[in-house]
Model the fold of this input.
Amino acid sequence: MSSAAVHRLSTAAARAPKLSPGAAPSMAEMSAAGLRAFFNIARDWHLAIDEQIVLLGSPGRSTFFKWKAAPESARLSRDTLERLSLLLGIYKALQILLPEPAAADAWVKKPNGAPPFGGASALDRMLAGNVSDLVAVRQYLDAMRGGWA
Done:
């Protein structure tokens, strides 16, 4: 793991609320953690604001900027939490498949001839706006890792 990735993980862990053993995280805690991770991924992938909004399920612009400024105040829908979970899984799978962070981060924007993409990039597929498009990318990467499709 690169030193930048270690730094990102340790910084996120330091900011994460401390849970008592066995306690399930609250929706607020999951929302905040998911958004913080998403905005780090968006930075690494060099995503435009409009791309970030689509990946999050097209919340209003003012809502998006509130989430970005104060993720701890967000209360996300199940749909948005599912999107975040899929995006985090995609990011993690890329880090495993392509251990060089720059290559992993660039992969999402490169044209891809694999069946789920048809010559477009994974990001193009994800930006179609449907949860099923995020699922397709996640399943493709899981299959490439030798996991369940």
Q: What stands out?
A: Helices lie at 3-15, 27-44, 49-55, 61-69, 78-97, 101-107, 122-126, 131-144.
